[in-house]
């Protein structure tokens, strides 16, 4: 029977994710020669070639991908074992590290932490603000236990490394200067705003969400100004420099800005949590997920 070496399998998985031996070595704090030696030894142990030359780089063979498919089940089972052991040793106590995008921190993470302080004071939540792509790198690398992000930037439900938990469909409202002719309307169609100057970031998730929402309504928005922070965006809207889509979860308000509901097909962004597959059985992490769901439900009713 083949002897499976967990450390070497982890090196192979990291190479699959990072793409090069050098990047793998950097991620695992190893030397490139040590990475190559470990993978060469693994190939001898399993009895099949795992790497093949591809120009000046290497790529995984079909056999390597087969090995990894089975290894993912092993990694998930080890996560479950760690989770069960943590539950046995600590019960409801423990530390959970959460990576979350900026507006999710005050809207979801902080209310969840407040609930946990009352219901499970032994659980300590450590929060790290991170953009979507970085959050999943941190999760994959074991630097956080849970990543909060948007569904469009999360791993697909078919990714064997993660479990994805839907939390909230966050409505998008439009911010208009209070003196705008449409500011008094109870409900607007996004297409009615096609000729307006728009304010959104030059790149990143929010730029993509704004463009996708406007394109779904049948137009491409004219970008008058580029900004990523809500303070800057709302200040420009208040000054009459343009309009902007604003997630309701962001809860940003200014006296000179009118927040108008869009309809009938109001655009939404979908907020999800992701965990390494198997880790969701850990009692402390499960309590954090439950608290986040409660916070999301409360926000949805607000």
Layout of helices and strands, plus pairs?
Blueprint: H1 6-18, H2 21-28, H3 32-46, E1 51-54, E2 57-60, H4 62-90, E3 94-100, H5 104-119, E4 123-129, H6 132-140, E5 146-150, E6 162-177, E7 187-188, E8 197-199, H7 205-216, E9 222-225, H8 230-238, E10 244-247, E11 257-262, E12 268-276, H9 283-301
Parallel strand pairs: 3-4, 3-5, 7-11, 8-9
Antiparallel strand pairs: 1-2, 5-12, 6-10, 6-11, 6-12
Helix pairs in contact: 1-2, 1-3, 1-4, 2-3, 5-9
What do these coordinates show?
With 302 residues, the protein is of the alpha/beta class. 43% of the residues lie in helices and 24% in strands. The chain has nine helices and twelve strands. It has helices at residues 6-18, 21-28, 32-46, 62-90, 104-119, 132-140, 205-216, 230-238, 283-301; strands at 51-54, 57-60, 94-100, 123-129, 146-150, 162-177, 187-188, 197-199, 222-225, 244-247, 257-262, 268-276. The strands form three sheets. Strands 3, 4, 5, 6, 7, 10, 11 and 12 form an eight-stranded mixed beta sheet that branches. A two-stranded antiparallel sheet has the order 1-2. It has a two-stranded parallel ribbon with strand order 8-9. Helix 7 links the parallel strand 8 (197-199) and strand 9. The radius of gyration is 23 Å and the shape is globular.
Write down the overall mean pLDDT. Answer: 88
Q: How many strands, what sense, and barrel or not for the largest sheet?
A: 8 strands, mixed
Low-confidence stretches: none
Based on CA inertia axes, which overall geometry fits?
globular
Strand tally, please?
A: 12
What is the count of DSSP helices, taking H or I runs of 4+ residues?
Answer: 9
Helix content: 40-55%
Query: Over the alpha carbons, how many angstroms does the gyration radius reach?
Result: 23 Å
Percent strand equals 15-25%
Order of helices and strands: HHHEEHEHEHEEEEHEHEEEH
What gap, in angstroms, lies between the N and C termini? Answer: 58 Å
Based on secondary structure, the structural category is: alpha/beta
């Amino acid at each position: 029977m083949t002897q499976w070496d967990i450390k070497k399998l982890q090196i192979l998985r990291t190479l699959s994710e990072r793409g090069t031996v050098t990047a793998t070595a950097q991620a695992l704090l190893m030397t490139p020669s040590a990475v190559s030696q470990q993978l060469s030894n693994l190939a001898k142990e399993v009895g099949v070639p795992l790497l093949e030359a591809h120009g000046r780089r290497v790529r995984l063979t079909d056999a390597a991908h087969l090995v990894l498919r089975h290894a993912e089940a092993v990694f998930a089972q080890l996560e479950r074992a760690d989770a069960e052991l943590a539950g046995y040793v600590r019960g409801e106590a423990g530390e959970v590290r959460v990576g979350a995008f900026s507006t999710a921190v005050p809207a979801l993470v902080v209310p969840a932490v407040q609930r946990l302080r009352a219901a499970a004071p032994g659980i300590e939540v450590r929060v790290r603000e991170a953009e979507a792509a970085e959050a999943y790198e941190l999760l994959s690398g074991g630097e956080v236990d849970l990543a909060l992000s948007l569904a469009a930037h999360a791993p697909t439900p078919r990714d064997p490394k993660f479990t994805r938990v839907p939390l909230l469909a966050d409505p998008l409202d439009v911010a208009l200067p209070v003196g705008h002719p449409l500011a008094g309307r109870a409900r607007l169609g996004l297409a009615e705003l096609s000729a307006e100057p728009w304010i959104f970031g030059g790149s990143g998730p929010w730029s993509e969400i704004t463009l996708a929402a406007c394109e779904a309504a049948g137009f491409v928005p004219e970008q008058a100004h580029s900004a990523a922070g809500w303070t800057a965006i709302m200040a420009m809207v208040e000054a009459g420099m343009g309009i902007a889509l604003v997630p309701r979860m962001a809860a940003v308000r200014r006296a000179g800005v009118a927040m108008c509901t869009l309809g009938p097909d109001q655009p939404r962004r979908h907020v999800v949590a992701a965990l390494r597959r198997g880790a969701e059985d850990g009692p402390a992490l499960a309590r954090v997920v439950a608290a986040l769901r409660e916070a999301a439900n409360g926000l949805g009713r607000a």
